[in-house]
Amino acid sequence: MRLILHLDMDAFFTSIEQREHPYLKGKPVVVGALPKGGRGRGVVSTASYEARKFGIHSGQPISIAYRLNPKAIFLPVNFTLYMRTSQNLMEILKTYSEKIEVAGLDEAYLDLSQKVTNYEEARFEALKIKSDILKKEKLTCSIGLGPNKLIAKIASDFKKPNGLTVVKPEKAEVFLSPLPVEKIPGVGPKSKEVLNKLGIMTIADLRKLPEASLQKYFGKWGLRLYETCRGIDESELIEKWEIKSAGREITFERDTRDHNLIFATLNNLIEETLASLKTENLRGQTLALKVRYRDFETHTKQKRLKENSDDQTEIKKTARELMLPFLEDKRPIRLIGVRFSKLLPNG
Ligand code: TTP
Ligand code: MG
After folding, report:
1. Angle of the 119-137 helix axis to the 79-94 helix axis, nearest 10
2. Count of alpha carbons within 13 Å of 198, Cβ hemisphere only?
3. What is the pLDDT, as a whole number, of residue 241?
4. Atom 29, ligand 1: which residue's CA is nearest?
5. 45 CB under 6 A from ligand 1?
6. Is the distance from the beta carbon of residue 161 to the nearest atom of ligand 1 less than 6 Å?
7. How many Cβ atoms sit within 10 Å of the Cβ of residue 218?
8. C-alpha of 92 from chain center
9. Residue 276's pLDDT band (cuts 50, 70, 90)
10. Which residues pair with residue 61 across a beta bridge?
11. Is the separation of the CB atoms in 123 and 166 below 8 Å?
12. How far apart are CA 3 and CA 6, in angstroms?
């Protein structure tokens, strides 16, 4: 018997901000770009559940979020803090199972198959994890338990925030049936539209489509969907989660040719990324710079860093050299980003 647990933190970035600044608790909080009185560029990274009541959500332009609730509290992204919290969480989770897949900053799968013999014991483990995280990190999460990764993931999202949903194998089909198709991981707005146009709204509807039709509409992924809507997923946890690169990018509130602003932002991005690499005890051998102009034309340019170079001043100088040619162009810049790759353990 396989028994998989999926955990996803509730409103991760904003919950951390509410923990750090208790006066934010119970208030609509938005983390992301700053709204600048509705003229701000960029998007919402996440919104607290209080802010979601106003229709504010991840990925939404910050100007729209501001319009929905100008009184919400808008905060910038403190990536280093969230990264550090994420690492603490993963350390906690590792004490509950040796088999763990870190699936993102705020989510992970744990294989409990070796640890428990039934769903009651698994539920008990899940409750222990929830109270451990609440005690140590002062954060809530939602957990799903099921016979595979797919069902565990859909289950963790079923009751949010602070939920715990157990789906035994014999209940999997009943559990999945009424859910809208977009609850299937990977079914984004485009696939949803295709399916809805065919009259397919729920996972039960999806089951009525023959394998060949799914393949016709979605190719190889259609075959995968055929299994997914039946709750079939044999995939193993990916335990070695290698970070291949680390970077940050930013869209300017207004397209800019202001060299001071550009270089200041570039330095900030480097500092943020180096800080997060440091928490992983990694260093990058290559630095890439990305520049997007007002017309969305995007360029990247990279340079190998000097051997053993983790000297911030040196790295900033390299970034500056990479940036200079882009500033000769007359077009204002919309976005800049930095990315370190070919990561190596430090020291
Ligand atoms: P999610 O787990 O998708 O969202 P969440 O934790 O904020 O809320 P939920 O309770 O629904 O799980 O993403 C985790 C974090 O990743 C989120 O707090 C912010 C960040 N994020 C972005 O920066 N941009 C995005 O578009 C999304 C979806 C998330
Ligand atoms: Mg989350």
Report:
1. 140
2. 18
3. 54
4. 45
5. yes
6. yes
7. 18
8. 19
9. confident
10. 43
11. yes
12. 10
